[in-house]
Amino acid sequence: MEQNKKKKCTVRFEPSGLKIEVPVGTVLLEAAHKAGIYLSSICGGDGYCGKCKVIINEGQFKSKPTTLLTPDETQENVVLACQTRVFSDMSITVPKYHALETSQILMDTDARRFSELAGEVRAGIFKFDPLVQKIFVEMSPPTVHDHTADHERLYLAIRQQIDAPIMQTGFRILQKLSRLLQSCGYKATVTIGRRGQTTEVIEVDEGNHCKKNFAVAVDLGTTTVVAHLIDLTKAATVDTEATYNSQINFGEDYIRRIIYAEENDAFDQMQNRIVNDVNNLIVTLASRQRIDLQEITTVICAGNTAMVHFLLNLDPTRIRREPYIASAGFVPPIRAAEAGIQINKRGLLYCLPSVAAYVGSDIVAGVLTTRIYTKKGIYLFADIGTNGEVVLGNRDWLVCASSSAGPAFEGSGVKHGMRAGAGAIEKLTILDNGSIEFKTIGNTPPVGICGSGLLDTLAELFINGIIDRTGRFKANGQPGLTEGDEGRQFQIASAGDGHHEIVITQADIDNLVRSKAGVFAAIRVLMESTQTKPENLDAVYLAGGFGNFLNVRQAVTIGMLPDVPLEKIQFVGNTSIAGAKTVLLSRKALKAAEKIAESMTYFDLMSHPRYMDEFTRAKFLPHTDLSLFPSILKKEKNNT
Amino acid sequence: MEQNKKKKCTVRFEPSGLKIEVPVGTVLLEAAHKAGIYLSSICGGDGYCGKCKVIINEGQFKSKPTTLLTPDETQENVVLACQTRVFSDMSITVPKYHALETSQILMDTDARRFSELAGEVRAGIFKFDPLVQKIFVEMSPPTVHDHTADHERLYLAIRQQIDAPIMQTGFRILQKLSRLLQSCGYKATVTIGRRGQTTEVIEVDEGNHCKKNFAVAVDLGTTTVVAHLIDLTKAATVDTEATYNSQINFGEDYIRRIIYAEENDAFDQMQNRIVNDVNNLIVTLASRQRIDLQEITTVICAGNTAMVHFLLNLDPTRIRREPYIASAGFVPPIRAAEAGIQINKRGLLYCLPSVAAYVGSDIVAGVLTTRIYTKKGIYLFADIGTNGEVVLGNRDWLVCASSSAGPAFEGSGVKHGMRAGAGAIEKLTILDNGSIEFKTIGNTPPVGICGSGLLDTLAELFINGIIDRTGRFKANGQPGLTEGDEGRQFQIASAGDGHHEIVITQADIDNLVRSKAGVFAAIRVLMESTQTKPENLDAVYLAGGFGNFLNVRQAVTIGMLPDVPLEKIQFVGNTSIAGAKTVLLSRKALKAAEKIAESMTYFDLMSHPRYMDEFTRAKFLPHTDLSLFPSILKKEKNNT
Prior knowledge:
The structure is a homodimer. The first copy, chain A, has a 6-stranded mixed beta sheet with strand order 14-13-12-15-17-16, sandwiched between helices. Chain A has 16 helices and 29 strands. By secondary structure, the first copy, chain A, is of the alpha/beta class.
């Protein structure tokens, strides 16, 4: 018997009322995780992001000292959950801005529209030839004059319908094959999966069930996981669903999560989180559409390299550390069950190939979807997520790079930033009279600001001369400028309006500028290296989870994208899932994706001599070199 | 609680002293099985072969009436174990002729010599390129300037050494790969297996262990299972071992075993038996040679179609029943562990391909070993086991057939027949004075007669006029002829000589004649169908487990083989294991075996219009048509 067996305390979280029993001394953030409560946390519990604020209503606790709380907050028993330990039964209130539950996620309808389109267009461009298909085979039963064995008889029947020079059959299928064929009179549905050049007999069932073959395409985002349910017989998207990546409690970017996993030997836990997220999405889609999980034969994933490593529990540690490599860029198809994904127990899990540690299969999917790799001319593709990945090229060459300038445009690292969910300000204009017009998702009172709103805010602050070209607030006395706990700030919605108070701080602006500077510097390095001038660009594709109504003009205004005619810039939504769906539906598309991944040249910006210089220059609005942004020069009202 | 819970009884078997506790009413044969006692049984416990005789020393039992015991036997408490139920604690004596334990099996030295030879010769004929190999790869570790992922880095390194256009890696290997490569400084031993056109990374280990790579080749005989331990780095046979097939308690031929398994739903049990036999052989070989089981990466099997089905638990039921087909003729390589075979947990199990339900991979191995399929001219191959399979052909065509005339030449279905073990009469001559000279294996007192001895006995009885051309004993008064319980019989060793009494009965002779007639009829059908005359035959290869010193002349004398010059007949021993070893050592040999299996034309004798006629004619000694046996005509002493 253990002598000093720890006492247990019950922690109750309001307003949800969820309770959890934990040992004395447990960190409050961990208790919240265990209770299934979502708390924002960028730093992964290291105590420096100040995001995981909660209010203690009752109970004994010990908190480490921090500079991230104002005296007022301390007065009101606000603590950082990651710096606070439980020492008795407690009651905790979780502030509303944490409470972004799955049910509140709004599907990004633009992204949805684009991905739908892509899936269908591609199904036309590429031959419809899904990675997993069901075929109905009718064989003449063996006789004494036709004594071909059942296994070989099945192969002959399959080959009458599809091209399958190299075939294999799992042992368990082989063991049941003869009895099954006899019992169904040699009329069977064969589920066929493609693994490289090999065609695998995944399953054999009695009778004809060819019309029941479904797949789930997944975009493994660092922040949001999106899943589309596909009817493989019709190449149609049946339903879509999204959830927050529940790894988020371990850090808002994947580098923090890798560090957390290393320090806490939490790789299994990290895998469990993302696998559970994917399983929950699958179950939600299947039950809503009344589809048996056994009828889902395929899962296909695209995502950044780290997320794919977490999903499969491959070692991700050197993604964050020299020499910055992946364990595997090309992951062979595996049985989904091997990774814990609950579909047909013999169903397959495909992951699109990635290019490098920081250019994942989501970017390959983007190139596939935008079809840059088939085009003449020169095209730019930028995917703004937690990192900003950039691709430049055409059918002859492709270069790519990743800027790790932070997830500000995903709403992280910004005081009132949030993802594109209900109550997020997605559109914002500062009128000539200094008053502010905004629109929220769902037209509810504002809770925070999502990507497109932050883009608008930064551009409007700049255009209206409230910040200067370095991103500094110019002076007091400007309408909306106040002095907050963290210094000067711009008031978007004041608590006095009956709204939740929403401000943009100097730190927020710095983060946003850093993000856009990172992206633009990456673009510049690729363009300079390939001697591409803005006027050479035939199109610029912007992908990412900004929200529904992205004002692409603002992306030029702040100097995130090169100053090309606006009609050349296209917001393409979630190209990661669109590409995954295309591959799912056509083996030729998978081959194309593999060729893209192999042929893209990766520029490591950290070791690139020009990058820091370009980054520093891009930290101005729109840039130190104004000649790069002639259209902004004209519009700018308040520059001297 | 069960009311009439059965009482238990202890059954003790002498002379081994083994004891087993069984419920009241248990059949004695079953009790013996459970105790691990070998009892002969041809009929699988149906009570009509009369083989499973035991003596009851003590205890209560109930036996069904039978005509298979003499009054003397009944007097002496001899019973059929399969017809007797236990009703109290009992003591049983198992007669010596049952007691053929593993340790008593004599390796067939001729077969061993042939198989050694074959393995080595073939390794020269075919390029040495084993199905599973270990290679040592040294990679330059990744750097920021060489950021190829570990998985792709490994593939590049492998492809520098071997030809592997299509590769795959198991998920478990992928998961551990990065940590392993880092810990060993990118110097690793890769175990590579070939599965069709695909090259699989079976295992990756730190450092260089290339020199430790072993395989076991197995001949899955209905009666005997033979295993050879092979050093894959040297293409050398390290050790050999054999055991009785412990399925034998369920019937001495595989048809009986299939029936038993169907009637008792004992397919799993049947698999367990043969898998245990193979595992025991592997453990024996490995421990004797001080080899870690993990260093055994491959098992390769050849055997009749039914045995391969039992091993893998594939449905064998239609092998014995219309339309007489296999579940699978071509079995893909599987992980040995999937079938329960205990070698390296990721090691592979290969089965050679078979032709038809009654022409198994052992025959394909025989054709491969004798190289008929590469030769000009015409060649005959006959493998005499429980069935007699026959192949005729050359490099342009191959025809084959199987006669199910019974296992008499394996010593089954013959009163004092036995396998080639210690005490078996393997050579026999009837001298002019009527006295008998014989030689036993191990030069011990005779226990029974093995295949070569039975061949000699039948031929000598015929040549010396003791039996006529129909196989009937001619008349009383001939030396050695006595009247036994089962009618007229020929005394080989009388109990009065201080020997165990050994006789040949009329029934024995009938069984032997039926066996040889089946083989010869099969040969005739193939020869007639291809218009092959005896003088067209360039060689006749005789394979099987007859014993060490087969007198091939006697096989012609009795009319089992066509009357060709004796120098054209060659006893080739166990070609099943020789072929398996050849395939193990060369991918090209596997391809050749596949081509042989595909290209051989199978003649179903049961539905062949000529077979019964040929069989009837061949039931004479040597044949009804003496012109087919000119050499016998000359020698025959006693024919009118």
